[in-house]
Structures are given as structure tokens and as C-alpha cells.
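Hey, I was hoping to borrow your eyes for a little while. No rush at all, and the record is pasted right below.
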Amino acid sequence: MPRTNDDSWDITQSVGATALGVAAARAAETASDNPLINDPFARVFLDAAGKGMWSVYADPDVTAKLVEMEPGAQSRLQLMVDFMATRTAFFDEFFLGGADAGVRQVVILASGLDARSWRLPWPDGTLVYELDQPKVLEFKESTLREHGAQPIAQLVNIPIDLRQDWPKALQDSGFDPSRPSIWSAEGLVRYLPAQAQDLLFERINSLSAPGSWLASNVPGEGFTDPDKVRAQREDNQRIRATAAKLIDAEITDFDDLWYPEERTPVDAWLAERGWDVTALSFPELMARYGRSIPQGAENSMPPTKFVSAQR
């Protein structure tokens, strides 16, 4: 279903279902022979959610049947697992780098189902604010609580749509804009219209004291190329239709969830406002972690840039 300005979702619907897809890729990487990351809670979320598109990554039997029916799916599935593994490693290292530098105030925008408050070795005194849709945070917290997990950091959940006045909600929950902060906007920007992207970073910039850190993955050059967008959509529709038959369930059309609009380059925008910025393309990030894009999957994902910055 196409997006609207006031749409909402739970964990198995719309944008919420993408969080389960990410968790499935993290679970697959964690269970691999040489994992780049360790996310022991990813599988917990999948088991709690039941069957869905994420089963393509999480259930080896479903994966094998899909590859048998769609031989080209193998490289695409591996690329998605590698993408999420390297993306997770990038943000994990970023968070811990900021913590090692002494920053103890963390804001995770669109926190989804990555349980960083529970799984990263946060220093004593670290306060983490997680913001996301109310039903997403409720699912995550209740699932982990039932599993007996306790957050390592001091966690403050802020159930809010990021298109609303989240800076007010954040400050009402104890956030101190006079202190340095670690900010992340992971897997978020492509699901915002271009204007909402600009507002998001304007708000972050206004709340960031000197010494703050910021990281995000953002659309790269060629993100809106019509030929690439059309080819990716056709491939995704074919694989989605096959997967839906295998799991006998309706599958969200993820291509309807993001906004293929021309955007302000985030790295340049931050640099103009005094941030010290580093940007990596997805192939560069893969190489950084000793991975490479599988043959045949070179054009199967939208161009992505990984931006990290310090003020």
C-alpha cells in the first residue's frame, strides 16, 4: 500500500515489516560460519513475529526453495545479508567510538528492532533514547522482556512518529541539548520525503552541542535513476510473488514504502554547518569489512552512502 502523510504501522505491516527483514538478515549473519556481527536477539524477534517475508532469510528451507525456483535470488539474498551485516557493523563501531570519546547521551531515531541498548557494551552512565512508532517499541520491549533480557544502557523509549514534534518529546523525556550526543538515523532516510529528510537533519543539527556525533545511511548518487528503479522493482516483484507462494502469506511491497525523490546531499549539508564529515559508498563499506558484491547483484540495490560526522 502506498505511503500517506499520516500512515502508521505495527511490526508486521508497512515500514514495520522492514524491521523484521533487517532482523532476519542479522540473524542469518549471526548464524553464519564467519559472522561480522553478533545479534543474539534478532532470532527472538523473528520467532515472536511468526511467518512473513522475513522467512526468506530466516528459514533455510524457504531460502532453498526460493533459490530453486528463482536461481537469481541467491546472489540477491546474500547481498542483502551482507548489506545488513556491514551496515550494522558500521553503526556499532560508530556508537562505541562515540562512547569511548566520553559521550554518554545517545539518540537512536527509528530504532526498529536493533537491540543495541541490550547488546552493546555501553559504559556506565550511558543514557539511550530510542524513538519509533509506538507499536514497534511495544513489540520490541515486550518480546525482550519475555525473553528475560535487560538493557545494558539506561533506556528511555519515546513512542512517536518522527514526522511529529519529536524534539519536544525528546527534551520532555530528559534529553539535554547542552550536552554532546551520539545520533543515528539508520535505515530511515529513504522512507522520508525529501522535505522531511531536510527537516530531520535541521532538527538534529539544532539539538547537537559541540562534541556530538552523527551517523546515517542515505541515498547515494543515482538513487532516482528511472532505469535502475524500474529494473529493481521488476526483480523485487518477481521474487516477492514467488516467496508469497512459498510461505502462503501476503508480502508487503517494500518498493511502495520509500520516496524516489531528489534530495539534499547530507554529507555536504553537514559540512557546511561545521561538522567534520566522512562518507563511504556501499562498495567501499563492503571492502572495509572484507566483503564484495556478489556477481549478478551489482544493480539490485539502490545506491547508498554511509555518512558519519562529528561536531
